[in-house]
Amino acid sequence: MVTFIIRRVIQMVIVLLGATFVLFACLFVLPGDPIASLAGSERARDPAVAAELRQRYNLDDPLLVQYGAFVWNFAHGDLGEDYAQRRPVNEILGPKVVNSAKLAGVAILIDVALGIFAGIIAAVLRYSFWDVFITLLTTIAIGFPVFVIGLLLQQTFALQFGVLPLFGMNDGIKSYILPATTIALVDAALVARLMRGTLLEVLRADYVRTAIAKGLPRRTVLSRHAMRNAVIPVLTYLGISFGGFLSGALITEAIFNWDGIGLALVVAIQQQNNPIIVGIVAYSVVIFVVINLIVDLAYAALDPRIRLS
To answer: Rounded distance, CA 247 to CA 257, Å?
Structure first.
């Protein structure tokens, strides 16, 4: 187990270095000047000031020198300084990471509750009205783009009925309902389809049939035998989804004006604010690798046949 964790940490470092280097290379060759693109900055248009800023942020250095400086600073917990606000990236992203994490937590709860419950109902009541209804509903949900779902929810529950806020974060738990549902709805449909398929496959297994033949109640067979194995592929998908939620839902945060890292990434791309872009990418890579590590460790707890070494 210890060897497995060490190997995954080394893998995380390699993935992080690879992802950030590719991003650095792309940003390095893109046309445009980050200093000149600072909106409303008259001082940045002065050649002397622009030269000073470029020197301050090492923008005239070769790619490898810039990347080496980033790796050195990142190893010391420093993601650099924001071009526009002249503030540390850690200080700017800190509150936004918390906001995105809160939204992701609510979204994954909706995802799990809707997806797994619907998948179990569809599998247990196979070929019934509820199975057909859930299959049809999930197919429709999967076909809808996220921004369409968000706009429909805003139109229905915020503008038409006025029961939920249109956007923003100032209405307590009500502020979370629409954006979290927007993020989770398509994912919940996929979870339901996956849960239905895996549970039906497990219910056809010999050990499940044997348990039923021995006279065990169907509810006991479902909860203690079938669910334990059926949920493993679903857990993999949920882990990836949760990592995506934590990394910021770019479209959803933009639609609902949610002050998270997704919205911060949109603004940073518009401003060519490279430290913010690289900082968000580094954070996202770390989140994905850590979540995958947690999922792998959960495998061993759910199925003793799986050994991590």
So the answer is: 16
203 to each of 105, 172, 209, 227, 256, how far by Cα in Å? 31, 43, 7, 9, 42
Query: 122-153 pLDDT, tens per residue?
Result: 998 888 999 999 999 999 888 888 889 999 99
Query: Which tokens in the block code for residue 99?
Result: 């906001």
Nearest-angstrom CA–CA distance, 301 and 37: 51
Tens digit of pLDDT for each residue in 44-75?
556 777 777 777 777 778 888 888 888 888 88
Q: Would you mind telling me the total number of residues written for the chain in this entry?
A: 309
What are the residues whose beta carbons fall under 8 Å from the beta carbon of 5, sequence distance 6 or more? 293
Torsion of CA 275, 281, 282, 288, to 10 degrees: 170
Q: Tokens 């974060």 appear where?
A: 169
In single-letter form, the type of residue at position 12 comes to M
Residue 253 Cα distances to 189, 199, 259, 264, angstroms: 21, 34, 7, 9
The structure's pTM equals 0.81
Closest CA relative to residue 280, chosen from 294, 295, 268 = 268
Please give the CATH architecture assigned to the domain spanning 90-302. Orthogonal Bundle (1.10)
